[in-house]
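Section: Multi-chain targets

For targets with more than one molecule, the full set of components is provided together so that the structure can be written out for the assembly as a whole rather than chain by chain. Components appear in the order listed by the source. The example entry contains two components.
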Amino acid sequence: MPHSLSTPDVTTPGGLLLVLAVLVPFVGVLAGMVLGGRGARRVALATLAAGLAIAIAIADTLVRSGAAVVYLLGGWTPPLGVALRADGLAVIMLLAVAVVIGGIGVYARADFGTPPGVREARAPFVFWTLLLAVWGSLNLVFVSGDLFTLYVALELLTFAGVPLVSLGGQPETLRSALRYLLYALFGSVLYLLGAVLLYGAYGTLDIGLLAARVHPEPVTWAAAALMTVGLLAKTALFPLHLWLPPAHAGAPAAASAVLSGLVIKGSWFLAVRLWLDVFVGVVTLPSAQTLAALGAAAILVGNIVALRQARLKLLIAYSTVAQIGYLFLMFPLAAGLAAAQLDDAAAVNGGLLQAISHATAKAAMFMAAGLVYTTLGHDRIADLRGVARALPMTLVAFALGGASLIGLPPSGGFLAKWLLVSAAITTAQWWWALVMLVGGLLTSAYVFIVVVRALAPAPEGWTPKASVPCYQQVAVLALALCSFLLGLAVLCPVDVAGIGRAVVPGIGSP
Amino acid sequence: MTTSLLLIAAVGVPFALLLACIVPAIRERMPPLLALAPIPALAAALFADDTPLVLGNAQYALSFVLDEPGRMLLLVAAILWSAAGAYAATGLRGATHAGGFVVCWLMTLTGCIGVFLAADLVGFYFLLAVLSVGASGLVLQGGTAEALRASAVYLGLALIAEAFLLAGLVLLALATPDGSLLIRDAAAAIPTSPWRDLTLVLLIVGLGMKAGLVPLHFWMPLAYGVAPIPAAAVMSGAVVKASALALIRFLPLDVALPDFGLPLAAIGLFGAFYGVVIGITQSRPKIVLAYSSVSQMGFLVAVIGMGLAAGDAGAARVASFYAAHHLLVKGALFLAAGVVATTGGRQLWLMLLPAAILALGIGGLPLTGGALAKLAVKPVLEDGLVELLAALSAIGTTLLMLHFLRCLAASASPDSAAAAPWGTALPWMLMFVAALVVPWMLYSATGIGTWSDALQPGILWAASWPLLIGAGLALGLWRWGRYLPRAPEGDIVVVSQPAMRVVVRWGDALEGVEGVLRRWPVAGLSLLMLILILGGAMFFDGH
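Its structure, encoded as tokens over all components, is:
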């Protein structure tokens, strides 16, 4: 069902909050650079709190008004000016990212402190400034209304994400960072090429105006294919995932959590925007099926390869490869529902929930792996004995995150799976349902292996290499609980995701 | 109002105790409370009426209701959980790390009571998952490498079953009018569903796996063999009944569907005999009991299948009654197996005699609950061939149970002064009394029949002759049994090992392919290919 995206000519009440959501993290980056050293961390943590408040305020405005929040920069309407626009989808992502970044910030407080006696250390300073930069870019991706601003936001996201990979400074992490950078740049070039084609053909880059103007013709198809593949490369959808496992597994735990939980969601979100809102009359069901077929391959290959990993962080990284696959199953389902003149909310909400529940669960799992590494001095899965005794809370968090990835109720993963399976059956595409169910089983196998190994009693006289602060464990558990209880969102009386889009029925109705 | 409170307490009290386990100090002091945790459920089964309890809002609500099958099973399950909890508390006295056991126990208990009461699809699925995860944790408490394997097999099969179920439940939800998620509405809508056949197949496969239908029964001997005694008792008694109860609730028993009912009955009856055949080659009491469970669950499913084939709504009541009896007896016998292993000499017969009465009761010993259970399901099985097979299965069960008693006596403690502690003997005696008395109460209270009917000489004789034949066969087994081939515990699971090797080889190959795909030239090529494929998919379809 095509959604009307025509931007109203006015800034809605609370529109200024969108500017703040983007601006505040970047102000934090600048302030951090000016203050340097310990100041960067203080600024970052203060910004995290402020940003969370802004995200909540935006959500509140959206729910109260029941319409998308809009801000026209300088009062100029597109195509002359630039509009920031947050519909239900964007607001939910804004809020989710604020929560996850907050959790990561609390966790990273312990790992990225400037050592005493030093005025400024490289890794902490880079981490805190880039954390804010990643966040600001993500917010910009969510609220931007035109394809060029989105390009800028994506580039910012990539350039903020790449150094996070090599915070440790070892040669192999530098190599993975370069690999990531190079491949992501290929993606950017393809995206930009597509955007240029569109501008040449239709004379605008504003999403709302483009949606009204595009029609199926070779130039649009070429643009759509180029932009989509560019975004897939940045999202690391199988088989374009060469950079992901070494980058995500090699980075420090907090950075891995940012990269795996959040950064890849930026380009995915943009792909969703393009396919659902811009190219809705241009993309065809077979092309959507192609995306989902890649997703299905990602789920199967990623999960099986994850099962065969010997190191915990690599296992989690491959699990991300698999989980990205789920995110792309929504495309043919949404297209199928739209083709049948049905509401595509089940597919869209399912994909969105999958993204959020993966963001929270995966951030929690990577950080749990980080605590395991600190405690044991290694992360070999075969030798996780004693973790249950040393880090009970962390193990529970890992298991809860795993339950969400598997899709056990009441997790967000379960609700997402329920919605997507419903959509698959309604649109007679049962094979995607099959892939999801098989993927859940494979996921449960590696979660089980890790949990059981960690439950094994430690050898006599064993002591942890280092003790971890309690608040780190609490931060991990809190994020895991967010993911595990996300399914209770179904009890939420207002359907937030549907605001600014179509009316959304709840679970159980097609 | 009272009903709501009772239902909330039934599920809420074990759940609250589970949450309280977060505090280590409370967790270590929890064991004595295990026997009390199911008491609210018992109260609910006795005093609650059938008003539903709804928690939530118009968009989604979690609902619980106490229907007739649920009430019967909840009543007996609460008794078993309480007795087994007392038994477990005795075993945990003085144990340093009781935490893991307690958490898994309470999780399983919450899931079990919840599934018995759940009235909506999502709540049912959620609580079933809680139940499976908790139960696999209980198996893990065996602490050995075999326990780890059994737990992995149990959880793996449970999750595969739940994948089938999830697909089935989504189909149910889509076919139910007005977006209702109540199990009752969903079951009523199955006959008119556009996906009727697929839904039924998914539900039957999913629930059948959890009920231990052959050939997916092998988790039962593995799990019950390694789990601690009280855990094996609740799992074989109460936990496995969740799937039978779900079959009773989900299948539209008031509509005749012979295409599904008859195959289901055939698979069930096959399992009923298969369990006996493998069971008599085993020598550990717990394993023999596990194969008896395979056999009895098969028989129970056959009853449900025949009810579905005939469109006999009354099958729900008698199948639940049969399940309730098996729940009590099997739970009791597992406790007996634990008690006898620590008893020797003079006290032994005190423990063995009640076990003999209950064990033969499963075969239909007159005046026991087992005879009532067989009598109750008779009308559902009134079909020439099926009736004969049912009688043959009673003979087989008698044979298996006599074999069990022999193994049980052989497993007694060699120390003639050994006596089981009261903390374990008393729960076993309590279960013995409950398994004798409660079926008689239920039999008349649910209106299945009257006591005087059940005591007619003709009926007593009909129950007796299979026993006599079974006893004769048992004599033959003891004389020539050593010539029988020995089936490994978990029989066909052995076959899966070569299959696992093949899977591992495929995994190697797949990992190799993935490695190739991550090389730079290949990845660059994939990028270009994808642009062409995606563009092509739009171009050719768009034209």
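The beta strands of chain B are 53-56, 61-64.
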